[in-house]
Amino acid sequence: MDDLRAGQEQACVALWNECGLLVPHNDPHEDIALFQAAPSARILVAHLDGQIVGSVCVGHDGHRGWLYYLAVKLSYRQQGVAGTLLKVAENWLSSQDVRKVQLMIRPDNQPVATFYQKQGYQLTPRAMMAKWLSGEASSTLTTHESAYLDTEITYLEMTSPRSFSADETRLPDDCLLLRANRPPPSFYRYLYNTVGEPWLWWERRILSDDELNSILHACGHELHVLYRGGVPAGFGELERRKDGNVELSYFGLLPEFIGQALGRPFLKSIVQLAWQVAPSAVPKCLKVNTCNLDHPRALSLYQSVGFSPSSRETKRIIHPRSLGLFETT
């Protein structure tokens, strides 16, 4: 493993071409010249059998490190070359007192994302903005990179306990509502991702297992799971705040169980659970919010069980799919 030497530029470019890393608006020879001229950058290459079989460009701005052009010849993959290149690049950045390294991949490049995840990298979504200074056509930005969503959020409150009759909360005989005590992140991710994918729930997709555990195992957190026929059908998540308010942070059914008349009695059951505490700890208010990305009947459902709108706001957000948080088709 050493630095790219004079006379090896064409072999390096051929490697990048074989790996599909070249794009029309980047001249690879110019990129090589830029990296070689910068005192805070290196082009590292791996040699096997007398030829260049891998490369990585690494550089830093004194604050963060960046990786580019990590490539391994197709015939030498699955031999640990990429992992070794990555580790050498990371070690060099550490020797430069750089504490964090970043890279960019396209949202639909799942195989590459999986590789980096195995190397300890995590998705840290940010709204990346770009502008061509050389007159390049802005149309080269993909739809993923430029998509925004306007969301209208409705905040609702219930300021006094609601009591429902047994008939109103009765679920089918093959249903069971259980509280999940200290649920593992894997189980929670299954529920959250499956219930939320049609409605673009994204906030907890970006959390690490440690960050999820800090929420799921916090005092005052309750995860209530609805089962039908022995399998999960939906969940309701309550968070009891220190200020005396309770938030119904998430509620929904798995797609396969929508349309089975479960939503209303399930929601009423969750509302009753929110209010069923010791008299000294009765919540001040039960809160929930929904937006125009949720199920089209979500707002009316919340209102039908006693929630009243308290405020509304419109937010423009980066489309979650542009952050690589959902499978692309």
How would you sum up this structure, described in words?
- The structure is a single chain.
- With 329 residues, this protein is of the alpha+beta class.
- It folds into 2 domains: 102 residues, Gcn5-related N-acetyltransferase (GNAT) (Aminopeptidase); 178 residues, Gcn5-related N-acetyltransferase (GNAT) (Aminopeptidase), CATH 3.40.630.
- It is 28% helix and 28% strand.
- The strands form 2 sheets. A 7-stranded mixed sheet has the order 7-8-9-10-11-6-12, sandwiched between helices. A 5-stranded mixed sheet has the order 1-2-3-4-5, with helices on both faces.
- A hairpin with a 4-residue loop joins strand 9 and strand 10.
- The chain is elongated, with a radius of gyration of 26 Å.
- The two termini are 38 Å apart.
Name its key features.
329 residues; alpha+beta; Aminopeptidase; 2 domains; 5-stranded mixed sheet; 10 helices; 12 strands; 28% helix
Structural class: alpha+beta
Q: Report the radius of gyration as a whole number of Å.
A: 26 Å
Mean pLDDT value: 90
How many DSSP-defined strands?
Answer: 12
Q: What is the H/E string?
A: EHHEEEHEHHEHEHHEEEHEHE
**Quaternary organisation of the protein chains:** single chain
Supply the CATH class of the largest domain.
Alpha Beta
Poorly predicted sequence stretches spanning 5 or more consecutive residues: 138-146
The helix fraction, in percent, is: 25-40%
Count of domains:
2
Q: Supply the CATH superfamily name of the largest domain.
A: Gcn5-related N-acetyltransferase (GNAT)
The profile of the biggest β sheet is: 7 strands, mixed
Question: With helices defined by DSSP (H or I, 4 residues minimum), what is the helix count?
Answer: 10
Query: First CA to last CA: what distance?
Result: 38 Å
Principal-axis shape equals: elongated
What portion of the residues fall into strands of 2 or more residues?
25-35%
Question: What's the CATH topology name of the largest domain?
Answer: Aminopeptidase
CATH structural architecture of the largest domain: 3-Layer(aba) Sandwich
Order of the strands making up the biggest sheet = 7-8-9-10-11-6-12
